[in-house]
Structures are given as C-alpha cells and as structure tokens.
Amino acid sequence: MTTNDSKKPQVGIIMGSDTDLPVMNEAAQVLEKFGIPYEMEVVSAHRSPARTHEYATTAVARGLKGIIVGAGGAAHLAGVVAALTTLPVIAVPMATTALNGMDSLLSSVQMPGGIPVATMAIDKPGAINAAIFAAEIIATSDEAMRRKLLEHKETLARSVAEKNARLQEQRSSRSK
Predict the structure, then answer these.
(1) What is the average pLDDT value for the chain, to the nearest integer?
(2) What pLDDT does residue 82 have?
(3) How many CB atoms lie under 10 A from the CB of residue 139?
C-alpha cells in the first residue's frame, strides 16, 4: 500500500491496472493540493478478487472516507467495491479500449438500484473531479476543508475573470 505521507489516509485511490496510473496521479495531485492524505493501490476486480474484497471490506476500519476507483474496459471495479463497503465510491472511467472509455463510462454509470457509484468524466477530467468530489465529502464534517474548497472555487472564478478581461482587451484593440 502506497500512501502520500505519514498521516492516516482519508481517501483510497485504486485502479485496475498500473496502466491507469498516469490518469489516477491527477487525482493524487489534487488530493495533495488540498492536504488530504491518501493511499494508492492496484486492485483488480477480475484478476485479484480476494484482494479487492479485502480492500473494500477493511476500508472503513482503516479510516477512509471515500474511494476513488479508476478502471477501464468492463470497469467492474467500482461496482464491486461499492457492493462491499458503505463508503462513497467515485468512479473514473478509463479510455483504455477501442471504445475510448464509453464502455467504462457505461459500466460505471449503469449500477443496479441499491449500489450507488458516483461516476465522473472519462480520464484526466474525471480523476481531477473525483478528487475534488472526495474533498467535498470530507468537507461535510471538516470546516477547514470547506474553506479550502471555497478558496479553490474563488481561484477558478478569478481565472475566468482574468481570461475575460484579456479577451475584452483583445477585442477592444482590434476594433480601434
């Protein structure tokens, strides 16, 4: 099990294969930005079902507050984990097949009633949003995290305002 620091992990990041690591590192970077300790592992619903079962059923006892799951192809990992834990499970579909992630997206979204999986966008945007969503889950009981999320949203708004100001300057200079 790999963790990002000595603090007890609050979020698990798991993936079906190490080929998913470049995308799932995006989630890790966002968690680090928010100061959220995490653990990261390769766990396969198909190739290591006993390990998947162990990981999911011990997650609460390990102190996790949510699990981000990256998987491609049939993408059963998020659903299996969701069936085995009471923690929020956040799926990141991977574009690993000729279907460019649509198979993973549909596999993650089409869960039977009673087994919820929050499903994000395919690949990098999904990994980034999964980590932000995990931070939002933590913020429901952590005021400091809520403040960090507010600062994040303010930074996004400032970025858009700056881009708009540059656009308006460019348009203004062209019309003169």
Answers:
(1) 94
(2) 97
(3) 17
